[in-house]
Amino acid sequence: MNVLTSVAEVSWFILLVAAGVAALVGYLYSHFKFYARSWFFPVVLAVFPALALAVSGGLLGGYTLKLWLYFAVAEAVIAAFFRYAVKGRHTVPYLLLAPAFAGLALLLVYPFVFEIYLSFHDLKLTTIMMWKNTGELPFVGLDQFVKVFTTSPLSETTFWELLLRTLVWTFSNVFFHVLGGFILALMLNNQIRFKGLYRTLLVIPWAMPQVVAVLAMRGEFHFTNGFVNIAITKLIDKLPFLAALGLAPVQWLSDYPLLTCTLINIWLGIPFMMVVILGGLQSISSSYYDAADIDGASYFQKLRFITLPLVRPVMMPAVTLGTVWTFNNINVIYLVTGQAGGTEQADILVSALYKAAFTYNRYSYSAAFALVVFAMLFFFSVFYLKSFDAAKDER
Predict the structure, then answer these.
(1) Which of 91, 145, 228, 237 pairs as cysteine with 32 (C-beta 3.0–4.6 A)?
(2) Angle (CA) 295 276 311, round 5°
(3) Whether residues 186 and 126 fall in one domain
(4) Would you say residue 376 lies in a domain?
(5) Number of domains in the chain
(6) What's the rounded Cα separation, in Å, for the pair 214 and 346?
(7) In angstroms, rounded to a whole number, what is the distance separating the alpha carbons of residues 306 and 310?
(8) Which domain holds residue 164?
(9) What pLDDT is stored for residue 265 in this prediction?
(10) Is 35 helix (H, G, I), strand (E, B) or coil?
């Protein structure tokens, strides 16, 4: 019975999506086909806002004149755009792309716009019932953005401490991702036996589900049963003078949580950089190295003047993606520390943002916080890619 219920629910969802796609395509087709007719504006302004009001009112449980006016203004703008700008051109491409764009709008654009709305208002536990009953929230302007920089998102750590910690976390991770990936890619780019097997084994940490990989590595840092402390103990047994230097098993998860997260994330990220850089190395023509051998160039000279310049265009987008991913990587922090509101020693900006929203219930503050993080990453990406393009043009 449960299986039949699940199948019915999935089938109903598929039919609902298909009906939505059909309605969207029919809506666009009518605007492409009849945009030049004299009755186009009166009909679409009478029909489509009323249909939109009926659907949204049924979903929201109420019909208001204000909501109809919003739909009417939106339809007027869309109809004018089709009559005076599109003029029936490129009908088929637009119709084919429309469902994908609608899906992206629902999954990305609407949440982003709603987040901007929240950041200029005050949604928290004391105002959430007012929002539920009236649909209105107190407008606070830029107050939430000021609080992001002046108040702590957590109980002890400030925004600026989190920012500095996040920059150190991001730089150290990306640096060792690139360094480790580059070294492994250079090794795999040689003619060695079982190269395919080595490549497969090295990719496993990145290919397996991150939850499994992180939790498996977390167990290796356990104080008594973890591989790291067992290896340290065995090493001290073999080399007793290391104990005099202060080497001893430590409580990695409680005393050094951020270092533990960093080591695990480095292990997870190296395979991705290795695959990207290896692809770049294999695209370099061997004629460059043959000419360098004729000129008597050493290995490091070939590495400096041939390999690095030619693999750089492949590395730069990967470094940009790696920086953004690492800056936003809450998975490793959350899974290693194992809690939503515990230790703050390993928190970075995004994990503090998560706690501010779902532990301390500061929703509007968290929305402003998220926009600040988004702006940081956006401007970094634009600046980094423009700098890379400028350096490429100079060459």
Answers:
(1) 91
(2) 30
(3) no
(4) no
(5) 2
(6) 15
(7) 6
(8) 151-361
(9) 92
(10) coil
Tell me the C-alpha distance between 287 and 294, whole Å: 11
What integer pLDDT is reported at residue 174 of this predicted model? 94
Yes or no: say if 144 and 365 are a contact pair by the CB < 8 Å rule. yes
Residue 33 in any domain: the answer is: yes
Q: Which amino acid is at 327?
A: F
What six digits make up the tokens of 33? 């086909």
What are the structure tokens assigned to 329, written together?
């990587």
pLDDT band at 89 (very low <50, low <70, confident <90, very high): confident
CA 228 vs. chain centroid, Å, equals 31
Residue 5 in contact with residue 52, Cβ under 8 Å? no
117 and 182 co-located in one domain: no
Shortest CA distance to 142 belongs to which of 121, 124, 167, 157?
121
Tokens representing 316 are 């730069």
Neighbours of 154 (CB within 10 A): 18
Domain boundary residue, one of 102, 134, 166: 134
CA atoms of 234 and 220, how far apart (whole Å): 15
| pLDDT at position 339 | 60
Contact 120, 139 (CB under 8 A): yes
